[in-house]
């Protein structure tokens, strides 16, 4: 079946996940600062009659923030989402959603009690039909209006505190592009003034949890609009790649024969229009991106500034990054040294882990290498390669979690840049999710990566893993105790033998046994435990 025919057959209107629930984008909800929509299942707010959830006051983190944002009360995203709402649905058990009408990630079934594990696969391991289906799903998302969500086209002040509504409809794919823009946009300070050193999704500890949630939500919306409950986002393993191997008409679109900055007309991505790419225009007008079309996707892979990004990342750089034991360090921003997050994000050298913002490594390197829409932070999600790229970045994050098995307290609780503390709610998601909730292994969230699966790992081995990890952590103490015990045993044995010698004399029949006995060999073995 052709991609066009598949896309046509799949065009149905279904709910989508994003920022402002349509049910709460009205004057009454904004003036009351309450977003607790009815659940269709029983007609009660948050499904309360069915014990799915309840409308409750939002509990905001009071932990101190870092010094990067020296303002207060000037940005709608501060203490998200309290500028717009201070009461939302608090779901119980395994229920989730702005009205508690869905299941948490990793659960399914009528009462959300059934565990489910899906597998993300390498895009080059998909069959032709699977690959074509994925491309059709992308095109479907670009042409399916969101039924449950709208975007804000003005700030809360511009909305006159809720009495002058400024919301707009948007398609499902662009909804996620807009969310990525909104989380990373500059702060509008009035006049022509802006504050650029702010980002709720990048350059700080929340970078990896934020994008992990972003992908999970995008994945779920595709599952809903297509009815394909097994759908997962494929990843592109770009380690050691010599060029953009997904940049072909068979996959994500080849190069235009006449204009190297555009996509080949043989790819339907060439007809896509981008949004939210003109940050300087929005800043000068003190306005938000309103999702107006701004031209075609731009991409010219490999023709980037080689002094900043000479090539795509290598396997050795990824392995070095994975060896870093600290998730976060120092200022917890793009200047952090020996930080796994900062090195993977690409602001620290992937060979030394020392911050170097004049270079772009790992995650950032791929964005710069694409040399187009992907290379500008706020609008980077316009290029569908964004999804393949971030799925692989998330798999590296997953490898680090499995290797180092950090406890939740490893994620910073305080003094991170605004929006990035462990208990901060992530901008701009409603329902609400905290950063720390996604600092956990992917399998707890219902998904895995094909290249990380271990088929031979039986249940007994799985049972042993936590204990082996604990043994690894206390190994130095065990070695020290063993050495000390060996020395003490050797001394005591020598004293005992000396006493025996003194008591028994120097009989030649006994002396040879002192160096050939099993006790002697055991002492030597124990000292090397």
Automatic annotation (TrEMBL):
Cofactors required: Cu(2+)
Record field: transmembrane: 474-498
BP GO annotations: melanin biosynthetic process; pigmentation
Top EC group: oxidoreductase
InterPro entries reported in the protein's UniProt record: Di-copper_centre_dom_sf, LE_dom, Tyrosinase/Hemocyanin, Tyrosinase_Cu-bd
Residues forming coiled coils: none
Region: Disordered, residue numbers: 293-312
Alphabetized UniProt keyword annotations: Copper, Glycoprotein, Melanin biosynthesis, Membrane, Metal-binding, Monooxygenase, Oxidoreductase, Signal, Transmembrane, Transmembrane helix
Domain Tyrosinase copper-binding: residue ranges: 202-219, 383-394
Signal peptide: 1-18
Transmembrane helix among keywords: yes
Major place of residence: membrane
Membrane topology: Single-pass type I membrane protein
Compartments reported by the entry: Melanosome membrane
Family named by the database record: Belongs to the tyrosinase family.
PANTHER family, per the entry: TYROSINASE, TYROSINASE FAMILY MEMBER
Protein name: Tyrosinase
Protein species of origin: Asarcornis scutulata
Gene: Tyr
